[in-house]
Amino acid sequence: MKDASQSKVTAGHATEKTMSEIVDARLSRRTALQAFFTAGLFGALNSAGLGPLARSARAASREDQSTLGFTEIPSVRQQSHAVAPGYSVDVVIRWGDKVVGDAPEFDVYRQSQFAQERQFGYNNDFVGYFPLPAGSSNSDHGLLCVNHEYTNSHLMFPGSPRSAAVTKDQADIELAAHGHTIIEIKKVRGKWTVVEDSPYNRRITAHQTRMRISGPAAGHARLKTTADPTGTYVIGTLNNCTGGRTPWGTVLFAEENFNGYFGGDPDNTPEARNYKRYGLSAKSRYSWSKYYDRFNIEKTPNEPNRFGWMVEFDPYTPNSTPVKRTALGRFKHEGATTIVNKDGRVVVYAGDDEAFDYLYKFITHGRFDPNNRESNRELLDSGTLFVAKFYENGELNWLPLVWGAKPLTPENGFDSQADVLIETRRAADLLGATPMDRPEEVEPNPVNGRVYAAFTNNTGRKPDQVDAANPRAKNAHGHILELIPPGGRGSDADHAALKFRWEVFLLAGNPKDSSHHAKCHPAVTKDGWVSSPDNLAVDNRGRLWISTDQGSSQAKNGIADGMRATDVDGPGRALTKLFFACPTGAEMCGPEFTPDNKTLFLAVQHPGEDEGSTFEKPSTGWPDFKSGMPPRPAVVAITKNDGGEIGS
Ligand code: FEO
Ligand code: CA
Ligand code: CA
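That is the input. Now the predicted structure with calcium ion docked in place:
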């Protein structure tokens, strides 16, 4: 059987057409029909080739085809945000706002580590809503769990210092601005407000939060340091991108680009091969290694092995210790989403966000018990990690990363399961997994039983590296694949199966620009097209909400990052519509619905991160727009003015 990564094609019209045909075979019947009507399909079709059916597809209004009831907004890059008419946007919490009781008022000119450890951190990404009381579906009162991925020193500190040139005090603030925040929130007269002095309110930081390391790699020699001779605990968490929730009501936060915080030359450590595979280099993005020996790999050579994991935390137990679950593997975790399989085992889907890296899933050995929360506590410590291999014929195989089975054996440098997990990427390389176009969030859809995986972009893919699951060279706009477990729809789907099928859900890009080679619904507008899909959420009708992060391509593409939504089944499949537009420079993160779907929490990350934007002269002052105040990352709550469900 030919696998996707072996189906190399070279540039040229004939082979492009071949790849186009392969992709069409991987579009479901309905989408394939629609794709046929999409002008500019790899240059193989044009509007002259459109038949009467196509014209009627165009004639039918978007409103007839999409179940999403909101009016699409114009995709304009501007200083403030925009939302569909009939909806309200309220800031719930911003960088610097009080989290813990004794936090001082935010003063951007008098920042300190002490203050930042008690205030909302920077660059909010994942947002999780956990109802109060635990186990309820209360949609008016709960805990909000938010990740803080990274810091922008040039927008945080007067004088706009580069990250590599901050002072020790500023580095301390950066460390305290990373991590996670838990706040209790309540809807008061229709507006979400933070409950001050709640015992649940807490900051978890890179600076001071002690975490336990558990699972097969815990206690391994490669995780031991002078500060932790046991290899079982670590201070802090880094680059917490997105995350997930477990069925037993704990939050998962991902450690993504942990490599950028370490200084020193990997070649001067015993872990050179390992560290280079994860992108550590002698040139650190941050200055932390100047001030802290634990971030200098020549002084503390094992410290990077203690990052790159998934962290589990119980927000309902305020003083509980976060746990790094090594069984889920070590890579640049975008996030981790869970679903209870029909047999009770828990399946965790995760992407490794790097060009040419892989898609993973983990299956617990134990079964989830909905009636005994305590019995689920250590479920994520034992199970099997798998990596995805896509085949051109529509099959998807999940390959086990299990020590002892060839090639994960001592002759390849793996002496235990701990070694396999510490070097998950190299183990997956040896298994022949399919290198993807930067895996971001993977979201199971409980309504139709399918799984949606976002691949944000990969302009480094060359024509001879194209395959069916990553069908475009220089993939500037990314794509979304639909993974199909056997067994049937909804809860009949067998997420624990080792063979799935897969389809292309959409190839992102502007369908009106033939150079993008986009594939989506023909009624997608100049405002609704997607570039660089990142986080995903599924609403209670099974519709897919897609956030985007174009990074430095925002200006070139000319569209705002934001929240788009589409049906996944029916005539509106892959018909993306723009619902919320970010202020300039920001990426969209965190989509999270309350159980009643009447609130959508969104995280606006790094507003003002445009080229040339600085603390003194930012491209936007969102959300305060006050003189002297730089832009501040913030979590917003969106509600419908008539009190209805979002998207109704
Ligand atoms: Fe932090 Fe993969 O985005
Ligand atoms: Ca992300
Ligand atoms: Ca991102």
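The pocket of calcium ion (ligand 3) is lined by residues 534, 549, 587 (CB under 6 Å).
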